[in-house]
Amino acid sequence: QLLTWDQYRLEHWSALYNSSYQTLSPPAYHVDTDKGFIYSTADEAFVCQKKNHFQVTIHIGVAAEPQYVKTPSGPQLVDHFLIKVFGVKLESPSHQVTIEQSQPDRSKKPFNPVRVALPSGKITKVTLGRLHFSETTSNNMRKKGKPNPDQRYFQMVVGLYAAVAGEETFLITALVSERIIVRASNPGQFETEGDALWQRGAVQDAVVCQGRVGINTDSPDEALVVCGNAKVMGAVMQPSDYRAKQNIQEVDSEQQLKRITQMRIVEFDYKPEFASTMGIDHTHQTGIIAQEVKELLPSAVKEVGDVSCSDGEKIHNFLMVDKEQIFMENVGAVQQLSKLTDNLETRIIELEVWNRRLAKLKSLTGSLRSTGYVHPFICSFIHLCHFSLPVTPTTVPGPWPPDVDFCDLLYCDQVYCCTPPTGGSTDSNITSTESAAAEKSNLTDQILHLSSIVLSPSGTNTTIQSFMIKENQQVIDRKYCLRDECGPGRFAYRVPIILIVKKPKHYLKCVLNWCVSVFSRLLGCQLGEHEWPLHVSRLYHSSYHFRSTVAGQANCSTDHHFAGALFTDYYFHFYRRCTDS
Question: How far apart are CA 464 and CA 217, in angstroms?
């Protein structure tokens, strides 16, 4: 249990300025009493012996280096900073009590202010030891074993002052302690200085040490230093409450994975002279090298000063590693590996889907080639495209752009579907030899499936990345584009269809034209695949109009002047190539 502190004479604090005369925030200021004070439950106050010295540690931090101090006559250049320690009487704050400091020859002299430098961006630590109160508090004697109702108290003040030319000082910040009882020396009633380090805690079974504890070492530099092995049967808890944190940011797990990958894990043996000094029983271990870690993760490595080995050899600026930081680096690296694994799993699932589709298509192809049966779904261009008069088969060598053709994949009869020859009947109402019911049922079968891959990024980009006929994986690209109608905002494709039809030497009614408009909305901002069934095979000429928009931005009635900004139009004209043109 330590003394508590409060601000002292806040109204007398002077402001600091930087070199540009900008006002700086007050310095961060913290005071601890490391030794010399014992809390008395009976007196409800801290007690110290006049003969025993106490120690004060001050921590000071500034964001920017102060250059000037505010004074009644205006800003003045700071010559140096001072730390002053003195006591005041609780019942009379204006009455100061001198603090003394023991000298090497055991003589006592009044404490002189200590100069201190305040570099910007750093915490300055100042330890003041061997301090004493020059007098005791009044009315210390107990009455009938109980605290004296007229007991008097001191308070201790630790202040930071700025000195200007002429040795005049101005208070910058100061803290005052809670009430203190200072008693005269009495070995029979008071604990010795050595015993004062260990005290009873707030609860009955608690023991408190005011200082650092070293196990197998006489020079601990942390609160607890253990030279040897330590057994912990429970958990080691660390503060992690977000309310105690600021500047919280996520780390780049990809960089963490790179750093962990570059860290070298080695086997090594500690030198015997070093192991004996540090209490290390097992010299052969597996681990990392601090110098290598410092290049990758400097914050995980700390210099702890010089270390002396048992043979007298001294290791200067010995490096130690914070393995907790390396553990957190491993956590980030595992998260990054998990992301990579998830991406690979998604790709594998996509490949498996495509493999199943290809296997199904190969199975269907083999069945059709072996039986000679032509499935109406695959050869979907030929069901109703016949005229009443026979047409002599013709061949157009090397058509361009190339016809949409399934016969490289599946078996098809070589029969054409074109306009009637000269002199033949042009009556478009000639009925089919098939029944109307059969015609109606086959209409739903003769379908071409057009697949599109849509890439809808942020903004109003409504461009469709690619079109493909799924039955034969044929891509409809720019070679089918009409001149001057390949974007932006409008794309028109003229796609020739192969002449062959399903049934040889049989004439059906040929529908000359069919136009359909399709409105497609692009939902979300991600890659997507859309599929539309198009009735093409029974037609001599067919046209389809697709409008691709961002949802909520445009529709089929939107003015055409917004093409390319709010929507993109796609026109597909399918026709039979019956001549050389």
Answer: 74
Q: Determine, yes or no, domain membership for 289.
A: yes
What DSSP designation does 244 have?
G
| Mean pLDDT computed over 257-264 | 93
189 shares a domain with 273: no
Q: How far apart are the first and last CA of the chain?
A: 101
Structure-token pair, residue 366:
């083999």
Q: What residues contact residue 336 under an 8 Å CB cut-off, 6+ apart?
A: 253, 254, 256, 257
287 and 400 in a single domain? The answer is no
189 in any annotated domain: yes
In one letter, which amino acid is 89? K
Together in a domain, 280 and 396 = no
What's the pLDDT tens digit per position in 336-360? 999 999 999 999 999 998 888 888 7
pLDDT at 525 over 90: no
Supply 111's token pair: 């404490």
Q: Are residues 389 and 523 in the same domain?
A: yes
Using CA atoms, how far apart are residues 565 and 490, in angstroms rounded to an integer?
11
Q: What percent of the chain is modeled with pLDDT above 70?
A: 74
Tokens of 438: 């059969």
DSSP 175: E
Tell me the average pLDDT across 132-160.
88
Is the domain of 182 the same as that of 322? no
pLDDT average, residue stretch 526-541? 68
Q: Is the distance from CB of 119 to CB of 27 less than 8 angstroms?
A: no
CB 17, CB 75: distance < 8 Å = yes
> What pLDDT is recorded for position 275?
86
Mean pLDDT to the nearest integer, 218-243: 85
Q: Which residues contact 205 (CB under 8 A, 6 or more apart)?
A: none
Looking at the structure, tell me whether residues 31 and 118 fall in a common domain: yes
Report if residue 405 sits inside a domain.
yes
Residue 266 exposed, middle or buried by CB count within 10 Å (0-12, 13-18, 19+): exposed
Q: Is residue 526 domain-resident?
A: yes
Q: Which of 486, 491, 492, 579 is nearest to 540 (CA)?
A: 579
Q: Coil, strand or helix: which one is 438?
A: helix
Task: Tell whether 307 and 392 lie within a shared domain.
Answer: no
Band the pLDDT of 389: cuts 50, 70, 90. Answer: very low
Task: Give the whole-angstrom CA distance, residue 215 versus residue 219.
Answer: 10
* Domain span including residue 260: 249-329
With H, G, I as helix, E, B as strand and everything else as coil, classify residue 378.
coil
**Are 305 and 382 found together in one domain?**
no
Q: How many Cβ atoms sit within 10 Å of the Cβ of residue 175?
A: 19
- The pLDDT tens digits of the residues spanning 567-576 come to 888 888 888 7
CA 89 to the chain's CA centroid = 55
Q: Give the number of domains in the chain.
A: 3
pLDDT of residue 512 exceeding 60, the answer is no
CB atoms within 10 A of CB 25: 10
Cα separation, 305 vs 499, whole angstroms? 90
